[in-house]
Every structure is written in C-alpha cells, then in structure tokens.
Amino acid sequence: MASVYEENDFGTIKGKITTNDNRAAAAVTIIIRDAKKTTLTNEDGTFTISHVPAGSHQLEVSLVGYAPLQQEVKVEKGRTTDIELQLQVSSTQLKEISIISNQNKFSRRESEQIARLPIKNLENPQVYQIAGKELIEEQVITERTDLYRNIPGAVPNFAAGGSQGLTIRGFANATGMRNGMVTSAIVPLNPIILEKVEVIKGPSGTLFGSNRNVTFGGVFNYVTKKPYDTFGGEVSLTGGSFQFGRVTADINTPLNKEKTLLFRLNAGAQTEGSFQDQGYAKNYTIAPTLSYQLTDRLKVTLDIELTRASYTTTSFAIDSMSKVTARSFRDLPIGYDRSYINNSVDVANGINNIQAQAEYKISDNWTSQTNYLYSEGFYKHFLWTTLSLVSDSMMNRTVRNQTPETFGNIQLQQNFIGDFYIGSFRNRVVIGLDYNYNYNQLYRTTVSYDKVNINNPLPDINAEKINALAYQKGFVGTTSKAYSYSAYISDVFNITPSLMAMLSLRADRFTTDGTYAIATGKYTGKYNQHSLSPKLGLVYQIVKEKVSVFGNYMNGFVNLAPTTQPDNTILELKPQYGNQWEGGVKVDIINGKLSGSASYYDISVTNSTRTEVLDGKSFTRQDGTQHSKGYEADITASPLPGLNIIAGYAHNENKYTNASPALQGKYVTASPKDVANIWVSYHLTREKAKGLGFGAGANYISDSWFEATNTFVLPSYTLINATVFYDQPTFRLSVKANNLLNEQYWNPVGNAQKQMNFLGSIAFKF
C-alpha cells in the first residue's frame, strides 16, 4: 500500500511565460531537473507540468544560447500551483531562438479533447496521432488530404459532396468532428483555419456517440486556431502548377488593455485549374474567433466559420466486369488527362459553423465546460457525374442533380471535469450530457445523360440539358429529423502511481420520425433505439513518463432503421456494434527527442445486415459480421539539432466474415493492406544561413479493391514530395514539389490525381 499512498504526494504546476515586451513566449523549454520533468510552452505561453512531487523545486526556463532562468516553486499535495515568469528577451529574439531549438517541432501529442480529460499520451490506453500547423506550414499544405498523409495508416478519401476524409483501420470516414463536436455532413474546409487534426484510432462511440462522423476505425477531430494575448499574425501568398493561387491572412490582437478580450481572424481564398482538359476548384473562408476571460474563473469563446466552394467532380464505376477486360485502373482505355465533363457540370456548396464554449472553474478540482455547435452545410447546386464503363469502348454518363439541399447539425454538450482523490486513489473524471439534433432537406433526382464511345469525339455535356432532363423526370423532395440524448462518464484512476485504469460508459437514446416525403405528405421509417457503449483500458508505466504498455476494449455503434421485408413484415433492427481489443506500447524518451507507439488491434463488427434470397425474394437478415485486424507503429524523432523525423507504418486486413453471397469472404473496398509514411526535415541552426531548411518525404499505399466483388484493382502508389524553405522572424519563403515520381494514381472513387506539380509561397509575419 506504500506505493498507493505515494500518489497523494504529487501536485501540478501551471504557468505562463512572457517576454520583456509583454508577449507570449511560445516553444520555450521548462525543466524541473530533480523531478526529471520537461515540457514546452504553448502558443499563448502557457504550460502545465503534472505529477510533480510535493515540496520545493527549482524551475528552469531553458533557451538555446541563453543562461537558464530559475525560479523556486512550492508544490502542495493534490493542488495546482500557478506561476508567471518573464524572460529578458524580446519577441523577435525569441522567434530566432525557436528556429534553432533542438526540440522536435512535430512531436506535440498532448490533447485534452481526445479523452476530454487532463491525461497525457502515456497515460491514455488508446492510440492517437496529431498532425499540426507546423506540418501544414512546412509541407505547404493546401488540401486536407495531404495533411492526413502524415497519420500512420490513414488513407485519404473524397466524398463527391465536398468533404475530404480518411480511411482508418479499414473503415472510411468522410467528415470528422470540429473542436470535439459533430459537424454537418458537408464540410468544405480550408486548412488555413486549423491548429491541428487529431486522429483517434478505434471505435469511439463512448465519448463521441453514433453519428455520420464516427466509424469503427476511429474519429478525427479538427482543432481550429484560437486567440492569444499579444498582437501578431501572418499574411501569405501561394502560387503554383495548374493555375493555383491562394492568399491568406491570420491576424490576432487583444481588444482591451487587460488582455482579457482577444480576437483572431483567419481568412483565405484560393483557386485552381486542373491537369485534365476540364475542371476547377475554388473556395474562400472567413473565420473570426473571440475569447473573453470574464472573471478569473469564467472564460467564453465564440468561433465562427463561413466557407464557400465551387468545383467539378466525377466518380467512376464499372457496370459489369464480364464486359470489361481491364482488371485495374492502369489497364483502362480511358484517358488519364480527360475529364469527360466540362466546367458547367459543377458543384456550389458551403458551410456555416457557429461554435461557442463556456469554461467555468468551479474549484481547484472541478471545471464546468459547456459546448455548443450550429453546423449547417448546403448545396446551392450539385451536379455529380458518374462515368460507368459498360464495355471496353462504351461509357454511360449519369448525373445526380441535387438543387438545392441543406444538411444541419445542432449539438449542445455539458461536461463536468474533475481531478480529485478518493482515499488514496487519484481520479480524473468527465461526466457529460449530450444533445444532438440532426436534420436535412433534400431535393434530388438522377438522370441518364448519354452513352458515349470513348474512342470517338466526345459529345457535349452541359448543365442546361441536365436540368431539362431532371425536370422532365421530376425531383424527389424529402426532409428528416433525428435526435440523440446521451449521458456518459469516463474515469481514469491510479491504482498505483504507475498503473492506471480507464472505465467509461455511454447511454444513448436515438429517436426519429423517419423520412417525410413532400409528394405524399407522409413519414416512413419512424423508430427509437437505445444503446450502451462501454470502454475499458489499462496503462502501466514501465518507466515513469517514459515507457508505458497499454491495453483497451473500445466500442462503437451505429443506429439502424427498421426495414420492410418482401412479405410486408417489419424487421426491427438493433444497433450495429464494433468492438475492439488492442494492446501496445508507447514511448517518450531522451527529453522528448524520441517518441512513438506500436500496437496490435482486432475489431469485430456485429449486427450487420445482409440479404438472403428465398423463393426469389431478397430478405434482410441481421446476423452479418465483419472483421478488421492489424498492427501499427509510428515514431517521431529529433536525433540532432534541426533534424526532425516522423514516420509510420500500418498493416490492416478488413473483410466480411458473414455476409450476402456476393460479399462473403471479400475484402472491404478502398482498404489497402499496407500504408507507410515518412517525412524528414532539417534546418540550419547556426551562422548566417540559420533558418534555411530542407524537407523530403514519401507515402506508400498498397493495392486495394475498387469494387465489392474484389475483381478490379485500385493500384498501389508511392508519392515523393520535397520542400525547401527559408524561415526568419519576419518572413518565410517556401518551394514545394509534389509527386516527384510523376505517378499516375487514383483516389477511392476513381478520380485520377495530379501528377508532378509545384508550389511557391511567401509569408510575412508581424
């Protein structure tokens, strides 16, 4: 029991570091040598060091090339000590110092949104990775899909409606969360607003519920940029291949002398042509954020994002494999640089996000967090062309016309977050209530436009004729509304200082009146459903705050509506469940210069639906199963000052184990078995050339299946990218080369992707 009692003998240090010109000191190293603790300050100069032994300690603020600043700090048992320190260095000098720091700028893994608790990566029994603004800047990222390539095992995907997502552990997810909340199904997003993307691996229904943003492979969370308490910002201009152009602005300022009212504005506009004979993409974003520290206990944040986009899109299909001889995209007779549409057949969409958060510090042990998100996406018009190959020479062009449509989600969430002791056991707890209202208003039809010979001149396709055919056929108008009411609790408690357990449970009630058809004035598909979603985890730190082993059981669920059988009976369905078992190891050693994780997982999906033919009629059965298993590893290293490395590898096999005859034993489409990534960055840290840097990386994605019968291959590909940059306190110059091997490759919906291309960027900082 002695080791259990010792857990009570620790406290926490929270603080803020500023410069002598009263600006936040970001990326500064904080060290407690006798406790062997090290951390870095955040962008706003704040830091937190937990699990510090009670007593007096010498805090060192360490800067490369400067004598350490020392401050004695007294830590009390089970309490948080707050301090503020000021460095005798200007903000300009600090920026220069950050350029030569030997800390890995890609290594930040700490996040309270992932577990909704103040626990560190080594204390968390689940696997997650973070890709942040440092990668966005260095890799000159203009599309989210390029950022996802830094996540081990992640395969970028694309939804025709404008969302860009990723496949995790064999399961596709097209939308994602926004600051931990549920977004609209339509998410046209420019990465200029992002602080980072957090990817949580495995079924995550316990904390995030059942909605279109959560799958059994995991969930990803967009974290947007927040205000800080000094004036600063950046304006950038980027240009490149295929008529690419982008201008962005990021401006931050306090609005009062007390620096309690803070404002930040991110805005940008970009346009791009296509490497194909037709095609374009445009978007613009304005995203203001306001934070107000009303009292020393209460802080309110308001975050708004308005994005508008227009672009062309197609997808590819094969009508019958018996009439097509090609068995891979590489063997198709269609032209890689041909779009088979024109720029009038396009999409115009947008999203309005209004997000608010109120944080109230109830006591030293408890915090109240109230979150609200209104997220509404829409199509002004949506012309989506499917190119269906019916033989080696003939292609059908079919167009879905959705004009206009709205998809919305409103969520209200209340969390109570505690850090306290019961006897000798430390508990970190979140207790939450969640209300989610999801709605849509649809107006759509699909028309067969024409059948063309791909070897002959291509007949015209235009929006006017598509609309005429659509109105002749008639549109189908529907609306739907669904409500979720949830309560959840998650507790991480220390059995000993090194052994922690996570126990979590969510109770969820889903209700909907079904789909309302405007033509009939009636609802169909009304149902209610209850679900319980547990999560269990164990973590043992073999070496305290350096090496930990972990295991977890995680659960996710998807609500399923009842279905009408051919004999007119109603089959009431249960929720579909995904259950994961996982074990692995995490490391964070050499003062943060080497970190990573490795794990093996096994995900079983139950209560899936399948069809069974009886007397020539297709009946639905709910005994389908699916099995996904694999292993992953990632590493982040900084072996030398200025040298930063991130790398990952994942192997996954995801197949149907009990399904309809056409799917039985087949692998899931667009789910490659092997995915690997690496990015190596080096910048000079001394002399006149300091700030000059070079980066290069590779991504490999193996073969997968394009269609459900596992006959037609979505080919493997390797991308090689490189960048050269010159980073100074007041400006940054960058040149980026993408796809240096000039690979021809296709995304999961069959769209040909850009071959070799280049970007150049200049940014002015202030």
Automatic annotation (TrEMBL):
<dbReference type="InterPro" id="IPR039426">
    <property type="entry name" value="TonB-dep_rcpt-like"/>
</dbReference>
<keyword id="KW-0472">Membrane</keyword>
<keyword id="KW-0798">TonB box</keyword>
<dbReference type="InterPro" id="IPR000531">
    <property type="entry name" value="Beta-barrel_TonB"/>
</dbReference>
<dbReference type="GO" id="GO:0009279">
    <property type="term" value="C:cell outer membrane"/>
</dbReference>
<dbReference type="GO" id="GO:0015344">
    <property type="term" value="F:siderophore uptake transmembrane transporter activity"/>
</dbReference>
<dbReference type="GO" id="GO:0030246">
    <property type="term" value="F:carbohydrate binding"/>
</dbReference>
<comment type="similarity">
    <text>Belongs to the TonB-dependent receptor family.</text>
</comment>
<protein>
    <submittedName>
        <fullName>TonB-dependent receptor</fullName>
    </submittedName>
</protein>
<keyword id="KW-0408">Iron</keyword>
<dbReference type="Pfam" id="PF13715">
    <property type="entry name" value="CarbopepD_reg_2"/>
</dbReference>
<keyword id="KW-0732">Signal</keyword>
<keyword id="KW-0406">Ion transport</keyword>
<dbReference type="InterPro" id="IPR036942">
    <property type="entry name" value="Beta-barrel_TonB_sf"/>
</dbReference>
<dbReference type="InterPro" id="IPR037066">
    <property type="entry name" value="Plug_dom_sf"/>
</dbReference>
<keyword id="KW-0812">Transmembrane</keyword>
<keyword id="KW-0998">Cell outer membrane</keyword>
<dbReference type="Pfam" id="PF07715">
    <property type="entry name" value="Plug"/>
</dbReference>
<feature type="domain" description="TonB-dependent receptor-like beta-barrel">
    <location>
        <begin position="336"/>
        <end position="740"/>
    </location>
</feature>
<feature type="domain" description="TonB-dependent receptor plug">
    <location>
        <begin position="122"/>
        <end position="211"/>
    </location>
</feature>
<keyword id="KW-0675">Receptor</keyword>
<keyword id="KW-0813">Transport</keyword>
<dbReference type="InterPro" id="IPR012910">
    <property type="entry name" value="Plug_dom"/>
</dbReference>
<dbReference type="Pfam" id="PF00593">
    <property type="entry name" value="TonB_dep_Rec_b-barrel"/>
</dbReference>
<dbReference type="InterPro" id="IPR013784">
    <property type="entry name" value="Carb-bd-like_fold"/>
</dbReference>
<keyword id="KW-1134">Transmembrane beta strand</keyword>
<keyword id="KW-0410">Iron transport</keyword>
